[in-house]
Amino acid sequence: MTDRELLFHLMVTQSLFLLISIILGFIFFDRAEDFFQLWELSWETIAVGLLATVIVLLIDLVIMKWAPKSWYDDGGINEKLFQNRSLPEIFWMTLIVAFAEEILFRGVLQTHFGLFIASLIFAFMHFRYLSKWLLFATVLFVSFFLGVIFELTENILTTIFAHFLIDFVSAVQIRFQYLKNSKGDGRDDEEDDKSV
Question: Full-prediction pTM beyond 0.85?
Fold first, then answer.
């Protein structure tokens, strides 16, 4: 799959998530106010989101340090998606993903069907990880973890913020690892340097 096709599929998927969220929101929420009560920007939102991000990234670091790469290798799709992106592109892509997925899975599904159902659907939506038990277990853990945070805070901004930071930091790490490896290979990637 080309870079352009990957980006197209990502945007189509996230657009579908938003469309499904809107349709299900109209079906399941009696009033718009019920949905908008889930949105509260506060210092707690930021603090809990940061803490959740640190926990997930530390677990991810431990996995990458101790598990064989074959256990958590996604086939290079994330690398292909982020290695040639600029930081602003990575920012917007990860923000869109966090926003669309959290509205659907936490804001609509978890609110009406509970933590267990929403987390399972979230994990199975990442179907490309089904053949890699460690990747699937990690996605399932992150989904339940974000779901628990949503249950505790009753604030979708907290989970959007945490989801965004987790994805953003991971994508930036992919980008910088690619640049480091490119320079280590002796290639002169001036274009890559300009896009950061």
Answer: yes
